[in-house]
Write a structure and sequence with these properties.
The chain has 303 residues and is an all-alpha fold. The chain has helices spanning 5-26, 34-47, 54-65, 70-91, 108-111, 114-133, 141-155, 160-171, 179-204, 209-236, 239-242, 248-251, 257-280, 289-300; strands at residues 101-102, 105-106. A two-stranded antiparallel ribbon has the order 1-2. A hairpin with a 2-residue loop joins strand 1 and strand 2 (105-106). Helix 3 (54-65) runs antiparallel to helix 4 (70-91) and helix 3 (54-65) packs across helix 9 (179-204).
Length: 303
């Protein structure tokens, strides 16, 4: 069956609903002492009921590509969404990017307070690894260990956290970042988690070394295209479309792909990356249609 824009939108919506149900099942329910209940409420607020669930979709769709049971893909997707939500909670805080709005609603530190936001982010990070380490995700302990290792590598000092550190340092730097540094920053801060989401789905599906290499290359191209689209939205989007403040990168003096390439050049580069992503998946044929459509989606989105 040919993949159309409508069929992709339906598949993405179904994946988001599946991820939401799995998150609800994996997250604790508010209970216990007042502080404990408040923490759990903040955790659920941060991760439930919002977002495109792109990372969960990538995990579930690559797991499906390699015939993994749907529940395993959904658990991996839920873990990626918990890790992603933790990063957003912390990034939004005054000591980081200082944002008041996320997904069209107040950020966690605004809805509660800074201490609760720190703890909610910490707890969501640990839940991500708890999900991956649970035998319900995969009966093979070696597979579970690989999943945890790859998520740790993608989210720590050599990945997402390291990228955020470079980003913060750039705000007070005397000189603009060189293009290669901007690319490294974005690959670490944004691309690494997108890349590992797709790779984790392939791992849980028992993909071969070569197949995982293709999935990783596809997701790396998609991750860069995603960040270019984010940079374009920061310049051309509205608060209503994006669900958060826009124009902040320029105000903070941050270098982006738009600064380096210009608006037209950034769009052209994003299109090139979509083609690269699609080419990496060509050996999988029509079965990879939804993953290819995802690459186009991240470029064309308005939020």
């Amino acid at each position: 069956m040919q993949t159309t824009e409508a069929s992709f939108a339906e598949t993405l919506s179904e994946a988001a609903a599946d991820a939401e149900r799995m998150l609800d099942a994996c997250l604790p329910k508010p209970q216990g002492a007042p502080g404990e209940a408040e923490l759990i409420e903040a955790m659920r607020y941060a991760v439930m009921g919002g977002g495109k669930r792109l990372r969960a979709f990538l995990a579930m769709e690559t797991a499906r590509l390699f015939d993994a049971p749907p529940a395993r893909g959904a658990r991996v997707g839920a873990a990626m969404e918990c890790l992603h939500a933790y990063s957003l909670v912390h990034d939004d805080m005054p000591c980081m990017d200082d944002d008041d709005l996320r997904r069209g609603k107040p950020t966690v530190h605004k809805a509660w307070n800074e201490a609760t936001a720190v703890l909610a982010g910490d707890a969501l990070q640990t839940v991500a690894f708890e999900i991956l380490a649970d035998p319900a995700t995969h009966p093979d302990g070696d597979v579970r260990a690989r999943l945890c290792l790859r998520l740790a590598q993608a989210s720590g000092h050599a990945g997402m956290v390291g990228g955020q550190a470079i980003d913060l340092a750039a705000e007070s730097a005397a000189e603009p970042m060189a293009p290669e540094t901007v690319r490294k920053l974005q690959q670490m801060k944004t691309g690494a988690l997108i890349e590992v989401s797709a790779e984790a789905g392939a791992i849980v599906g028992g993909a071969s070394h070569d197949e995982i290499g293709r999935i990783r290359a596809y997701a790396r191209a998609l991750g860069e295209a995603f960040q270019i689209a984010d940079d374009l939205l920061d310049v051309t989007g509205t608060v209503e479309e994006v669900g958060k403040a826009v124009g902040k990168d320029a105000g903070a003096g941050k270098a982006t792909f738009v600064d380096i390439l210009g608006i037209d050049g950034a769009r052209a580069r994003a299109d090139e990356l979509v083609s690269t992503a699609a080419a990496e998946l060509s050996p999988f044929g029509a079965r990879a249609g939804m993953l290819i459509a995802a690459a186009r989606f991240v470029v064309d989105r308005r939020s």
